[in-house]
Amino acid sequence: MTAVLDTQVLPPVGVRAGAFGNATHLACRACGAQSPLGPFYACMECFGPLEVGYDFPRVTRAQIEAGPKSIWRYAPLLPVPADIATFRSTDPGFTRLVDAGNLAADLGLRKLHVKDDSGNPTHSFKDRVVAVALSAARELGLNVLACPSTGNLANAVAAAAARAGIRSVVLVPSNLEQQKIIASAVYDTTLIAIEGNYDDVNKLASEIAGEEEGWAFVNVNVRPYYAEGSKTLAYEIAEQLGWRLPDQLVIPVASGSQLTKIDKGFSELIKLGLVEDKPVRIFGAQATGCSPIVQAYEAGQDVVAPVRPNTIAKSLAIGNPADGPYVLDVVRRTGGRIADVDDETVVRNILRLARTEGIFGETAGGVTVGVTAKLIADGDLDPDGETVIINSGDGLKTLDAVAGHVGPKTTIPPRYEAFTDFWKGYTA
Ligand SMILES: *Cc1c(COP(=O)(O)O)cnc(C)c1O
Ligand SMILES: [Zn+2]
User: Fold this and answer.
1) What is this structure's pTM?
2) Looking at the domain assignment, is residue 267 inside a domain?
3) Which family does it belong to (predicted)?
4) CA of 360 to the centre of ligand 1 (A)
5) 298: how many CB neighbours lie within 10 A of its CB?
6) Selection from 381, 300, 420, 361 nearest residue 117 by Cα
7) Ligand 1 centroid from CA 317, angstroms
């Protein structure tokens, strides 16, 4: 895809040549106005969100296949330098695409794959976006990695900064799951718990980002680069299917960045001739207790009214989603839909994924499997279509969600008779 460059878009000042690979500029998603590559995230004309634009060279399947087994095999399609794989990052990505025949049979689908992103270095898809944000931060001379987070992002930022040998500051809601707090704090990050929900944390982060020079808030001032990391989910799914696109996907939605970038990733592969063009229907999944985009979708609106989150799916608890309108655009344009399930259904579907496929997903995974079942029941998902769902995080980080529902079948003294007593009654 060749970008049409405004004459006003000058090469970035003070940034080394090739710092952003084949990326050429930032473009406003609302009005199209272009900005140079830099620590910019809002359009100077209309304050709309900025997105990275490229001038891609010819890239072949063989070139990609010869690359590292991480997101860096797609470096030519990301805003990162060509030698990115030599920098110290957590090297996320290339997680397994599980042929989920048992869950498919249980749901009544012909063919289902689970893209299991719990296999990333800090056990969620956030390692992908943080790795690209870290590269941008380094190239822009920003030396503190920071974020407001619903949990997983804090884990990924803290780990990536530790490995890169730079400082990190992570802001999280104080009511976050204990597992996610500890799994950030171990990296010796400056973890600050904020008395408020994610939207309060995010607002505070924006204020700090406006004042502190040299800080890269991965999902605020370097958000355009961060967001590009999610495209690698689309690239991997296509490559792992043998350079083919699936018919339909179900994707968990918080800010909506992941969903919109998976759509962008597919269209780039088509334009580069790496996969055959075909329609891919994209579906979004939210928890009922935080479903602002579902509400807008069902009301037929283009704007998303913020809500106050109240759900166990804390990683998806963003009441004011930055990419909400773009999620609506993608699901409507591709013939998909965005739907929600309640917390009880989330728990049931965490267990369903575990019991059918041996995959222990976090609450976001329960949301995605639950919404998949609902979309089938409503006749929105084609049971004969090849389907991919994303398991974006690890159940070990949200143990409280299932702790009251599962446990030992019995507790016995360490004696054989005690065991046989139990076993007789148990199997009878
Ligand atoms: C952050 C997150 C998401 C959604 O990300 P967005 O890009 O903000 O929509 C999904 N699942 C998990 C586990 C996450 O941590
Ligand atoms: Zn604009």
Assistant:
1) 0.95
2) yes
3) Belongs to the threonine synthase family.
4) 17
5) 13
6) 361
7) 9
